[in-house]
Amino acid sequence: MAVLTTDPVAGLALTRPRAALLMVVLAAVLTLLHYAGVLPAVLHRLPEAWIPPFAAWLDAGFNFIKDDLGLLALTRFLTEGLEWVLDATANLFFGQRRWPYLGPIPWTAIAAVAAVVGYYLGGWRMALLGGGVFVWTALIGQWKIAMQTASVLVVAAPLAFVIGLSLGIAGWKYAWVSRAIKPVLSVLQTLPFFTYLLPAVIFFKVGPTAGAVATTIYAIPPMILMTTLGLQKVPHEVIEAGHMSGCTRWQLLRHVYLPSARREILVGVNQVIMLSLAMVVLTAFIGMPGLGAKLLAMMGSFKLGRSFEIGITIVLIAVMLDRMSKAWALKQPEHHERGTPWWKQHALLLIGIGAFVFFCILGQFVEVASDIGRRQNFSQGKLMDDLIKDFLALGWVNAITGWIRYVVNVQILIPFRNFLLSIPTPAFILAIAAFALWLGGRKQAWLAALFFGLVALSGWWDRSVITLYSVISAVTLALLFGLPIGIIASRDEKWSRRVLLACDTAQTFPSFVYLIPAIMLFGITDVAVIFSILIFAMVPLTRYTIEGLRTVPEEMTEAADMSGATRMQKLWKVQLPLALPTMAVGFNQAIMFAFFMVIIAAFIGTQDLGQELQRTLAGTDMGKNFVLGICVSLMALTFDLTILKWANDRKRALGLGE
Amino acid sequence: MQQTASAATEQPVISCRNVWKLFGSDPTTYLATMPAGRGYEEIRSDGYIAGVKDVSVDVRRGEMLVIMGLSGSGKSTLVRCFSRLHDITGGTIEVEGQDVMSLSEKELIELRRSKMGMVFQSFGLLPHRTVLDNVAFPLEMRGQDRHKRRERAMEVIKLVGLEGREDYFPRELSGGQQQRVGIARSLAIEPDIWFLDEPFSALDPLIRREMQDEFLRLQEMLAKTIVFITHDFDEALRLADRIAIMKDGAVEQCDTPDQIVLHPATEYVRKFTEEIDKARVVHASVLAKPDLTGSGDPVDALSTVHQLAQLLVQDTREAIPVAREGKVIGAFRREDALNILVGAH
């Protein structure tokens, strides 16, 4: 779309960086004045008395909606239905004594079905993965907790799919729905997960029901986006062919649009499944039993071997679900030879049903085939606990981690944090706005100032700054590691592919898992928090660096070669400038991931917003919970808006994409 | 050309009068307030794109009207106005005497289900359906039962020579085969009006030629009313009864191939005809003047100057008579025909 620009571009290019610089200088002056002790206290931090009682207002609002408008009655009513479904799946998966009193399904039967489904989707390798994951889970003695998680997952993911699909269609069909949904979606995507949990608890009771609701809501946004995207991408002529075939509106949607958007919709399904898994693990914080709860308990009591085993189970399940749903998205229909008998066309379906029935019956007679007892499993948790503890206690290991901990903490992190905390609030806001102005533009600068201004008004400034400090330091470190890895890997086709695969796989891991190695190495400290964010954030950075560098058009690198550029010159003068917009998207994602992770890391014992958020879960402090959540969201949104704006501007300027 | 006389009395299948299609923020108001005679560029500077600009064209029963123009000339837009895939901004379009803009959604769907078929440049096949299900799609939409529609679909699949491939999915077929599926689908409902939007442009030249032959064979069998779009002047000359040449949304000239190469109406049209071997396009009937009487054996009205080349060079008659179906309709001057033959027109 040709957008009419009112600002003369040449004039802006001169004034924008200058204005930004001016703002930074002003911020520096304010800070120096504060150091010199001449800055009035009012300008350093907002006085307590000036802070409006947002939490109380929100509470009043919530209470009004909850009680006076009867939302609580409605949700409690909905809870009944959901609870009934969850009870049924709980019975089927791990034998809770509820209707339909059939379960639990023997583990062998589930593993066999998974293997057949895997074979259908991706041949022997996928079959091995599908069956193998379940066999491992059973043998390691985590079958029951895994099924507790699964019983919620199989309810939440389809629910998120249906709601997401419907909203996606509505958003595509009616512009006003799309306009209404968009800002909500971007806030939802930056809102820390603790903020999803508390309302779920209040409105839907503790346990699986609240867990399912929080998981569903968390997994909806990508489904909406992918549905809308897929529907918009249906080729014009296919739609016109539908019209010319005399489709009614409903027929057009059902027979033309939705099947043509199949791939995007299935990619949406993949994301729904992965987000559901990530969230369902995190619902441990509101007392949802399952893998997450066990992991939380084990990490809390520093049983690292056990944590490690559970972590592997979670990772394996994640990888399996991801691979299978991706294979499904890519699977193309194929025709059978003429005259193939019915049973041959549906051979896999029949085998699947057969195997399921066989193992169900077998389970009735052979105990081990249906249930692996406490003493029969192969868990080596205790042994590994000891090994890990011994390893960490080794003199040189201890020395190294201790040294890293000391240097990073004392030399870098604490001074940096103290510096950030020492900056007067107005100066901080000015600096952030300057950053937004420089990268994004005037609108982004105003939004940045507004958002951070609101954070200041919320009364949680210091904790917000500490949150930001964790994010900034972790992302900076991630840049130091991620960029070189990406650049080096991108030089070679084979290595690019390997590293990309590793990144893709790592990205499917539920974030919770990243805490395990951090705690293993650095114990329960600040450094462990930074370390877990660091590895979590490194993944998108590396990924997009490789992607950006690999997608630089070949003629351009060839032109550089023919101009006699050295490798270094080519990298700096041609490849990096062209890859930068894509890399910026990765950088943005790294920041979003960091904001997400820093909240989870609250579990380790941080002093930031996450800690406070976690504390609100214990009570019914919904107002405070929301204020804290919105603070995180506002900070994240500021970066999101600014960086993406820059990346898009840059892409357009370079004539790449869109 | 033969139908010129009879068609004049009969009502045209599609008749459009002063049709406008403008793209922009509020085209209806703009068109209403726009001063008359505004050009394409002027309209564009007002923030609107004239997809179709004041077009009046008739499509007669059983004829093949080829709409020719470069990309962006509005030919696809015009055809989409005929079938009301686009709503027009001004003017009227009548299909079989019915104003298409006045149709309700239901009536429009009914019209498409019973009377219209369309073939698309990039095929527009549904990727998740087999060849058979793609071809049967329009029948399914109008609620024909499964058995009947499969039977009919198989008939058209045979017609386009895809027998044995009916269980394939579109991606398993070559481009030419995919377009055969597109053609079969458009014919499934036995439409009276057949729209073809650059059906062969996405194919490579050899296949294109083959498909054109195939298409002419089909047309001979089916004798439909056809609106055919192309950007290829050779293709237009090869297929058309009449050609409408479009530029910037307007029709520059609409006439038979002979008349277009002999008497281009505008400079733009003349440029197109420059490279064309006119002797292969112009027929004896067009050169014949009724008031002229020749001597000796007449030539057939449907033969081209190129086909008569040998006779023209060797003969010594001043005027040569022309006969249609055995009846002399006039005669042409040998010199005129020779001029066309040597390109000195």
Automatic annotation (TrEMBL), chain A:
GO terms for cellular component: ATP-binding cassette (ABC) transporter complex. InterPro entries: MetI-like, MetI-like_sf. The chain crosses the membrane at residues 20-43, 101-121, 128-146, 152-172, 184-204, 210-231, 272-292, 304-321, 347-366, 391-408, 420-439, 445-461, 468-489, 514-541, 578-606, 626-644. Keywords: Cell membrane, Membrane, Transmembrane, Transmembrane helix, Transport. Pfam families: BPD_transp_1. One of its GO terms (molecular function) is carnitine transmembrane transporter activity. It comes from the Bacteria. Gene3D superfamilies: MetI-like. It is found in: Cell membrane. Residues 146-325, 464-643 form the ABC transmembrane type-1 domain. It is a multi-pass membrane protein. GO terms for biological process: choline transport; glycine betaine transport. The keyword Cytoplasm does not apply. Belongs to the binding-protein-dependent transport system permease family. This is Glycine/betaine ABC transporter permease.
From TrEMBL, chain B:
GO terms for biological process: amino acid transport; glycine betaine transport; response to osmotic stress. Residues 14-273 form the ABC transporter domain. The keyword Nucleotide-binding applies. It comes from the Bacteria. Keywords: ATP-binding, Cell inner membrane, Cell membrane, Membrane, Nucleotide-binding, Transport. GO terms for cellular component: plasma membrane. Signal peptide: none annotated. GO terms for molecular function: ABC-type quaternary ammonium compound transporting activity; ATP binding; ATP hydrolysis activity. The keyword Nucleotide-binding applies. It is a peripheral membrane protein. Its main location: membrane. It is found in: Cell inner membrane. CDD domains: ABC_Pro_Gly_Betaine (cd03294). It catalyses: a quaternary ammonium(out) + ATP + H2O = a quaternary ammonium(in) + ADP + phosphate + H(+). Gene3D superfamilies: P-loop containing nucleotide triphosphate hydrolases (3.40.50.300). Its EC number is 7.6.2.9. The complex is probably composed of two ATP-binding proteins (TmoW), two transmembrane proteins (TmoV) and a solute-binding protein (TmoX). Belongs to the ABC transporter superfamily. This is Quaternary amine transport ATP-binding protein. It comes from Pelagivirga sediminicola.
